Amino acid sequence: MGELSKEEAEKEYKIKQKNLGSFEYNQLGFVLKNKNEYLDIKWSEIRQISLINEDNWDVDKLTLLIETEHSFFTISEDEEGWYYFVERLRDSLKIEDIYMHFMISSQRSENIVIWKDDDKE
Fold first, then answer.
1. Do residues 31 and 24 lie in contact, with contact meaning Cβ atoms separated by under 8 Å?
2. Which of 13, 23, 79, 119 is deepest in the core (most CB within 10 A)?
3. Cα 26 to Cα 16: distance, rounded to the nearest angstrom
């Protein structure tokens, strides 16, 4: 399989950005549906978001751990819906520097908390 041209790569990225994956969104939050779980989560229920950087030598894998009072789930960058979810997360929780956290995490091997709702401790 050959490398993608710049135009093909941009087209593929735009398709990924619009892919909702296993998520359905509404004004208050989202529903995550997959074979093992059905989670209805409001943005206001999220307590903490951690970024896990899995170092696989040649390619790192980013995973977000989303925690609420009663549940948690993960989404990884190789899953459908990642790009759209990250944008909705950034906009809904006002995490302006979310991409900076991704860059910092790629330089370190530890997991980092990128957002925490201090009002819910």
1. yes
2. 23
3. 20
Token digits for 46?
A: 């999220």
Q: Strands 29-34, 23-25: parallel, antiparallel or unpaired by DSSP?
A: antiparallel
Task: Provide the residue-wise pLDDT of the chain in tens; the chain has 121 residues.
Answer: 568 888 988 888 788 889 999 999 999 999 999 877 789 999 999 999 998 888 777 777 889 999 999 999 999 999 999 999 999 999 999 887 777 777 666 666 668 888 899 876 5
C-alpha–C-alpha distance, residues 76 and 81, integer Å: 9
* CA–CA separation, 36 and 39 (whole Å): 10
